[in-house]
TrEMBL record:
It comes from Streptomyces venezuelae. The keyword Hydrolase applies. CDD domains: Sialidase_non-viral. This is Glycosyl hydrolase. GO terms for molecular function: hydrolase activity. InterPro entries: WD40/YVTN_repeat-like_dom_sf, Xyloglucanase_GH74. It comes from the Bacteria. Keywords: Hydrolase. GO terms for biological process: xyloglucan metabolic process.
Length: 361
């Protein structure tokens, strides 16, 4: 069984767990004490893994830190890694997403609030604003979602470094095929039930997007009402929410190796944002959304109220895959067998905001 590092970003710091020889243990105390950690990335592309964390201090403001010793020590750049140019008139509130690019070894993308995309070419030590998206003609009409106006999803394509897909709450999915020079809304088929026109070109409240392991043109999307699949890299979307107890949720995760396999955590909404039917259940599809099955072996049987946020569920890169999620109850659960069975790893943590895991050699 592979050794695993598990990073759990919470409202009050970053907790790191490690699985060695099948047994889990967590470091003695959190990192970035009293900081909200909304984003973490585990960059395994180089000879030495690098961890990146987006911390948000109520006193010092947001920053991006990196570690080259699996989280034992952390470095903060002497100048802010992510900063809005003065002429934009904007101020960084938080870093929602950190994404090592699939086809460019030193490139890392950051998604922020206010919604913007940043690109780093030094593995996340400094970033520059991707201006064409920031200056997109639709931008003045973007409206913050309930959690703010965050660019929370970045997907890159191992076949083509110029192809990047992002998602913004609340603006929807945007794509570029020329390295960020031009961006187009890609929301055809995704509903915005809260707008007068439920099928706008942009303005959808997309919560998360994931890419299929076998078919890079297949994407899965969890919306504010609606679970969708695209088979053409996001140009068009099809509703696949039938068979779920609720098609509202925040997270969606694709299996790291098996095509057609993805996971969601259904939430009751809008007024009562708790697990559907008050049950702690992950739902899995193995046929690209044609059918769904509940996964609950080892999860709590009693009424449950732990909401799983958009980045609080993930997979590792093993096969069978490890699937992990944390919730706003401060609980963390893990499966080492594609979600078939679960164990609880932690409880009584602060609100879990993001979870990331990877095998370490």
């Amino acid at each position: 069984m592979a050794d695993i590092i598990l990073t759990v970003g919470t409202r009050k710091g970053l907790f790191i767990g490690r699985r060695r020889g099948g047994a889990w243990e967590f470091d003695d105390s959190p990192y970035f004490n009293a900081q909200a950690v909304y984003s973490v990335a585990i960059d395994n592309r180089g000879p030495t893994p690098r961890l990146l964390a987006g911390g948000d201090s109520a006193h010092w403001g947001p920053s991006v830190f990196h570690s080259d010793d699996l989280g034992r020590t952390w470095t903060e750049p002497s100048k802010p890694a992510v900063k809005f140019p003065k002429e934009t008139g904007a101020s960084l509130e938080r870093v929602w997403q950190l994404h090592p690019a699939a086809a460019e070894p030193d490139v890392v993308y950051a998604g922020t609030e206010p919604a913007a995309l940043y690109r780093s070419e030094d593995r996340g030590e400094s970033f520059s604003l991707v201006r064409p998206l920031w200056e997109h003609p639709t931008r003045s009409k973007w409206v913050p979602g309930g959690g703010g106006e965050g660019l929370h999803t970045v997907l890159t394509d191992v076949r083509d470094p110029r192809a990047v897909t992002v998602a913004v709450s609340t603006a929807g999915v945007f794509r570029t095929e020329d390295g960020g020079a031009n961006w187009a809304p890609s929301n055809d088929g995704v509903s915005a039930v809260f707008l007068p026109d439920p099928n706008p070109e942009f303005g959808q409240c997309v919560h998360k997007v994931a890419r299929d392991a076998a078919d890079p043109d297949r994407l899965y999307l969890q919306n504010h009402w609606g679970v969708y699949r695209s088979d053409d890299a996001g140009a068009h979307w099809t509703d696949i929410g039938g068979g779920l107890p609720s098609d509202f949720g925040f997270s969606v995760v694709a299996h790291p190796h098996r095509g057609g396999t993805a996971y969601v955590f259904p939430i009751t909404a809008d007024s009562d944002r708790v697990p559907a039917d008050h049950r702690c259940r992950v739902y899995r599809t193995t046929d690209a959304g044609e059918t769904w099955e509940p996964l609950s072996t080892g999860l709590p049987d009693e009424d449950h109220y732990g909401t799983v946020l958009r980045d609080a569920m993930c997979s590792d890169d093993c096969d069978p895959a490890g699937i992990y999620f944390g919730n706003r109850n401060g609980e963390v659960f893990a499966s080492a067998d594609d979600g078939d069975t679960w164990q609880q790893l932690a409880s009584h943590l602060p609100d879990v905001l993001c979870v990331r895991a990877a095998a370490i050699g």
